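Technical note accompanying the year-one report. For the benefit of new consortium partners, we illustrate the data format agreed upon in the data management plan: each record pairs a sequence with a structure-token string. No post-processing was applied to the example shown here.
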Amino acid sequence: MTISPGQYGTPLEAIQAAVSILGGQAPTARVAHVTQPTVWRWVKGKARVSPHACIPIEDHSGVSRHDLRPDVFPRDPSPAAPSAPPLIGSARP
């Protein structure tokens, strides 16, 4: 199942959707390599999804890591610092 990027309004809605797609808290815990009580804390908004769990959850549910943890996986990374312009006429005769 493919989920459109940015489909979820909040990270809490994203993890709740992923848990539903994966069939519950226990299957989500197995996928994420955490305990079921940890997933319960995520679903209840008591804790945020750990960054290391975002990628396996994304791989198995289709819910983007960008939606699960936008603070860690921003959708549009900050632009790089602009490079210095080339030195014109820097060579002296």
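Partners are asked to follow this layout when depositing records. The domain at 11-67 is CATH 1.10.260 (434 Repressor (Amino-terminal Domain)).
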